[in-house]
Amino acid sequence: MKRDDTSPPPYWYGESAEDDRGTRVMEALRAYRAAEMSMRRQTQAAMAMGENELLVLRFLTRANSSGRDVTPIDLARHLVVSTASVTAMLDRLERSGHVIRTPHPSDRRKVIVSSTIRADDEMRQALAAMHARMMHATRAMSAEQAEVVTTFLQRMRCAVADDCEKQGTGCCGAVRMTSAPLSDAAA
Question: What pTM value is reported for the model?
């Protein structure tokens, strides 16, 4: 990104060619995230649900399709919320006909949570067109491009979650970061 003489120096990123490429990628990611957040708000409004309720339904749909049983504790761990919060949410989702709770087949202390056909149909209806457009966009990629994009997104997830530092794995593809500023202009 070329600056004119009246532009202030960059705050977050440097001015090298590598930083220019990185800044363009970061801006594209921000634009994608904004579009995704807008889509989530529209889906929430269409289904009259909050974000965590939609996350529960998506989690249940994936688990059910792979034959995995889900307990309220699994949902609490997935959402990083208390089991009491999950219980209240499941009460609402059960009243609205989106989930059912059944006794665990081998442990009578546990409950299995499943999405209903109604929930699956509503999610499919709300998201089908968007998912089709997204799959169309991915089908235009070669196998090599898909590998590059997938690796990049995994590295970005790692960097955002700070897993490189926590796990010491170098998963974000960078050398160990220090607290030193990126450039003199950033200081």
Answer: 0.64
